[in-house]
Amino acid sequence: MKCRKCGGKAVINMPQHHLGLCKDDYLAWLPEQTGRFIEKYAMFGREEKVLVAVSGGKDSLALWEILHRLGYQADGLYLCLGIDGGIAYSSESQRLTEQFAAARGLQLHIVNVEAETGRTIPELARLSLRGRSKPCSVCGLVKRHEMNRVARDLGYNVLATGHNLDDEAAVLFGNTLTWSREYLLRQGPVLPAIPGLARKVKPLCRFYEREMAAYALLRGIEYIYEECPHALGSTSTYYKEVLNRMEHERPGVKLRFYLAFLDAHKSGLFARQEDVQPSLNPCPGCGQPTSAPGLCSFCRLKEKVRSSGEAGL
């Protein structure tokens, strides 16, 4: 296949765009498209400080590299979750993230969850869930709280995550199956800021996972290949597999599904968010907005740790 731009040998074929590109043109195309999406969805401006949540994976590291390349004020935040086991997942992720930042002279903030809460994510899950489920819900709770806390405390205007189209389509698919209207209302490229919560953006939301993997490979970004060991068998992984089978038969179906949702959202198909948004009040423990009458879920989790009286789990 030939490159659509220069006629050379294409290294990637994107049938949903009817586009094949060589290495140089692809490495220029993807950042250009990212910049266009940032402007299209009014994610942030040149004058704003962006905090990029980096995990050591291809998407978040590539996003950070792209924003730096585009000239945005972007620093990184790595959360050490304490998920290791046989593959030393957290340790290797942190090593690769620190290596990435040092090689490019970028500022990286590191938060150790165990130091902040007294337990690692697997330990918090065992304490909170008592083995009833995977630790994903607890992990998500802690990550959301800590990312917002750091953004607020350090004066960042925007929190950017590396969610790609495969991630967004899988979440949308699951929420549509159950018509989870509150989650559907909140899904999109931009989640506006409210008092106490930073604006959240997803600049990679229209790129397929394979496109981000190709970019990282061609750009020479070293990242952790292994998935989180707790992701195996998760519902989101199942939804991705279903959508991948559909994509194989009908190239571009994931992108069309996601863009049609955004169009429907914009045209007013769903109720206004303010009509279903629960009233929020500051948590007396950490100050972040919560719909709970007292402590937020994160602070209640920390209270469990303090009251458990256990030296280890």
Query: What's the order of the H and E elements?
Result: EEHEHEHEHHHEHHEEHHHHEEH
Number of strands: 10
As a percent range, the share of helical residues equals 40-55%
Overall shape = globular
Broad structural category: alpha/beta
Determine Rg (CA atoms, Å).
20 Å
Short description, anyone?
The chain has helices spanning 23-40, 58-70, 89-104, 113-117, 121-129, 136-153, 165-177, 181-186, 209-219, 235-249, 253-266, 273-276, 297-308; strands at residues 12-14, 19-21, 49-53, 73-80, 108-112, 158-160, 190-191, 199-201, 281-282, 289-290.
Describe the protein's architecture and organization.
This protein has a single domain, classed as Rossmann fold, CATH 3.40.50.620. The N and C termini lie far apart (56 Å). The chain has a 6-stranded mixed beta sheet, with helices on both faces. It has a two-stranded antiparallel sheet with strand order 1-2. By secondary structure, it is α/β, with parallel strands linked by helices. It is globular and about 65 Å long. Strand 9 and strand 10 form a beta hairpin. The mean pLDDT is 91.
List keywords for this structure.
Rossmann fold, 313 residues, 49% helix, 10 strands, globular
Task: Outline the secondary-structure elements.
Layout: E1 12-14, E2 19-21, H1 23-40, E3 49-53, H2 58-70, E4 73-80, H3 89-104, E5 108-112, H4 113-117, H5 121-129, H6 136-153, E6 158-160, H7 165-177, H8 181-186, E7 190-191, E8 199-201, H9 209-219, H10 235-249, H11 253-266, H12 273-276, E9 281-282, E10 289-290, H13 297-308
Parallel strand pairs: 3-4, 3-6, 4-5, 6-8
Antiparallel strand pairs: 1-2, 7-8, 9-10
